[in-house]
Amino acid sequence: MKGDLSETYNIMTGKxxxxxxxxxxxxxxxxNLRGHSIKPSKQRASLDVxxxxxxxxxxxxxxxxxxxxxxxxxVNLFKNRVDKFWQRYGH
Length: 91
Known about the structure:
The chain is mainly α. Strands 1-2 form a two-stranded antiparallel sheet. Helix 1 packs across helix 7.
């Protein structure tokens, strides 16, 4: 999961040379006060194989992260913050 989150971080922050909209559709919810500002939404999956795509399986874990982790300036800082978050809140 840490690898999936790291790749999501790279895609979401533009550090990966791919269009994030190819993988994720962002959720634009103005009244959401929890979590962070870059929240993708899970898409409907009609086939079982689609339910386990990278872009589907990472959404729940990514959306649980606090803003301070998502705002990391590098992937290494992101990974360190994820580790501390998981140690603090269990994973």
